Amino acid sequence: MACRAVCLLVVFAALMRERSVTRAATALHLSQGAAGAALGRLRKLFDDELFTRTRTGIEPTPRAVELARRIEPALGLIHGAVTDQDRFDPATAKCTFTLGMSDDLEAVLLPRLPAATADLPGIRIAVRQATRNTVAGMVDRGEIDFGIATAPAHGPDHRTRTLFTSGHSRLFNPRLLPLATPLGLEDFLAHPHLLISYDGRRGIVDDLLQARGLDRRVIASTTHFGGAALHLATVPVLAMAPAHAATVYADALGLTVAEPPLPMPEYVVSAIWHAAATDDPGQLWFRNLACAHRAYRTRHGRLLSKVQSGMR
């Protein structure tokens, strides 16, 4: 009876990880019928549906999530022993790792990943666009292996790790706007602005200005920081960008980085992944690679908080 229960938990672990009966069966070298039968026995054992069908696969019920959280360490060990995935050798592995993040973080993090994996012919890095509001769902659905976002929304079946703190910088083209730095509030308000905002209507700068009874002239908006930086090459406008990406854009496009003329809040950037992947050797290797210990510099060379090592 104990052996049978362990076998069922192995299937449960695969279903939680793969979010698909077919993929779970493949991972465990079982037929789809055998995996489906095991799911039926699991449902009877725990008196719960455990997984419900969706358009993209299956999703765990609250009962399944709670079970996974309680027996997560044991499930990880069982899965590794059964599938022989308790070891990971990047030199011989053939796999694609998918990371979710916004384009400003991609500008800072992605360039060094291909260089780090250049001598690993079987490793491929893929990046998908993700925000703090979408990254957790993408992790849950298996669309990404893990994500990096500003204060990502997360639940009890997620794990997070603070990477660094950042702030805001003002970008402009000195050939089109020959402004002196530091940029004063009068000059800031005297020139047109390019807004980067998810809804295209207003940003944090507008809220701060409104609190002072002030307003700025926004002539256009976009949802992507990288696109806004490219527009500055030909348009005489000011644009706000995350401090960690501003120097990247400035160096690449010959732009000037300036401190905002009013106090701006800092924010935390974190990694997020599913609890079931915490001890997976391949996932752990990738998380440590993508979030390797390094320092990010602001526009005036001041060090931001360093990325923490040890992603367990």
Structural class, by secondary structure, is alpha/beta
User: How helical, in percent, are the residues?
Assistant: 25-40%
In the CATH scheme, the class of the largest domain would be: Alpha Beta
- CATH-wise, what's the superfamily of the largest domain? Periplasmic binding protein-like II
Q: Strands of the largest sheet, in order across it?
A: 4-3-5-12-6
Count of domain modules? 3
Rg calculated over all Cα atoms = 23 Å
Flag low-confidence runs: 293-310
Mean pLDDT: 84
Largest sheet, strands/sense/barrel: 5 strands, mixed
Count of extended strands: 12
N/C terminus separation: 33 Å
Overall form? elongated
Spell the H/E element sequence. Answer: HHHEEHEHHEHEEEHEHEHEHEEH
- Our count of helices gives 12
CATH arch. level architecture of the largest domain: 3-Layer(aba) Sandwich
Percent of residues in beta strands? 15-25%
Q: Kindly report the CATH topology of the largest domain.
A: D-Maltodextrin-Binding Protein, domain 2
Provide an overview of this structure.
The chain is an alpha/beta fold and 312 residues long. 39% of the residues lie in helices and 21% in strands. It has helices at 2-18, 21-27, 32-46, 62-83, 103-109, 112-116, 135-140, 185-190, 204-211, 225-231, 243-253, 281-290, and strands at 51-53, 58-60, 95-101, 123-129, 146-150, 158-166, 168-172, 193-196, 218-222, 238-242, 256-258, 267-274. It has a 5-stranded mixed β-sheet. It has a 5-stranded mixed β-sheet with strand order 9-8-10-7-11. Strands 1-2 form a two-stranded antiparallel ribbon. Helix 1 (2-18) packs across helix 4 (62-83) and helix 2 (21-27) crosses helix 3. It is elongated and about 75 Å long. 33% of the residues are buried.
